[in-house]
Amino acid sequence: MKTTAFIAAIAVVLGLAAFDKSNDGRTVGQKVGETVDQAVASADKATKDVRDSAKKGVDEAAEKTKEKTAEVSKTVDDMAITAGIKAGLAKDKELSALRVNVDTKGGRVSLYGSAPNEAARERATQIASAEKGVTGVDNKLAIENH
Fold it and tell me: Are 118 and 95 spatial neighbours (Cβ–Cβ below 8 Å)?
């Protein structure tokens, strides 16, 4: 199919060159050769442009995929940190995992809710800080007033 189109294009070029009345000292063969060279150069440039555009699109898609994968990985890490801290809090007799909310973003932990006393509040900070991947703890636990 491509060969047929190419042959047809060459036939058109030859026909146009044969009917060219200008007399610039070049033979029909020279004119046809130049026209074919120009067509090949144009085709090469178009092919390069398409390849460059496709490569750019692939590179952009790869970068977006890499960014999304990193975001998902961070989210999974944060979820694991939160689960580990909740498990640690559940083991403490004075701290109830049900009364302490744990939020983690980018390894930074925030503790919300209440603790029965200052010592339990501090233990919550220690439990959270000891979890692998934690970069900091914001202890916002209120002390319960009985």
Answer: no
